[in-house]
User: Fold this.
Amino acid sequence: MKSKIKIAKKTLINNRRSKYTLPTNTKLYPAQWNWDSAFIALGYSNFNLNYAFKEIETLLSGQWEDGMIPHILFHIKDMNYTPNYKAWSCGKKISSSGITQPPILASVLKLIIERQKFSKKETKKYYPLIFKIKKCLEWFIKYRDPKLTGLISILHPWESGYDNSPLWDKPMSRIKIDTNLSYKRKDNKIVKASQRPLKIDYDRYVTIKNHLRKMKYDPKKLYYKSKFNVVDVGFNSLFLKALKDLDFLLDYINVKNSFLKKYILLNEKKLIKLFNSKKMTFKNKDLKNNSFTEIPSITNFFMLFSDLTNRSINKSLIKSLKKYCKNERYLFPSISPSHKSFEEKRYWRGPVWVNCNWIIYQGLKNKDKKFAEIIRKKTINLVEKKNFREYYSSKSGLGMGAKNFSWSAALYLDFILNR
Assistant:
């Protein structure tokens, strides 16, 4: 275990550039990713607090004037990734993508400040970070829920973080692919094509991206005109938790925050209405096509992380989660193996992801300690056996995707050092 801790730390250091950390040291992801950096910062906080805050500060340095934190920051003009900075063509201070990712940063910052036991006086040093995160969460409400329905939309599958999940199959099937698309993928040359999204997926991703670019990423227009507009339960769960954790930090530094407090109540109320009590799971809402989808994705259980006040739903989710992984050797497959869309080795269509396990563990540790400890131990065991890979087979534990993956190393450290 001690040697693995050293290797985990070394993995992060080797992937680190001057002020930020790559998801992996291969050519697969040659930039800074939004929620990757949040998890990475949490990993650093266990052994180098300076690196942790530098990671967060660098991510927030790319925040747009309107408050959005992009899902990719291209600090170096690397052309290996598709779509690269030229394809996005946006970001004033730092070249970036024109979309965002799950706002896990608020929850990570709260965890770090709590664990370090910072006084109110010591926390003052981090006021700028807290207020930038506040501006980001307010951006979501203003532009991704302009009608104040209480539910946040994502406008591209990439914004979810789980890019090619079967959750998007139905809305994506209705995307009319642009003719004469011009792009060259390199991801399926670096990693086995059988482990990456299909060509048709990428054609649709790029079609949506190109449409967003034509609208100059104008947040006032995108909600109404994007080719893809989905209320995703997993994303909203992370958003609700972010709101609660930001609310805690603002109260801690004596900043009044009545609007966000009201939205927390509204968001939670509307999310509960998406719960299917018979199937004991949540459903997504496709606003573009006015339809619902119910896919057994592990991200539906992110609701445990959001700490709903509804104990009955929490109990039902835990019961459903135990059934979800009943026959699996390794936890948690990203899609239930009993579902027709499950693919053991293809990206977000079946493999195990350490960050999903961490999110669910955090949601369970105060609700079902015994089950939470099983998850912690099984995740540690998987990573120690198969090393710091991007994702793993739930059947064999086979490590797949990128090697030396930063958030797997970071969250392994967090599992080990913060029981």
Observations:
- The longest helix spans residues 233-252.
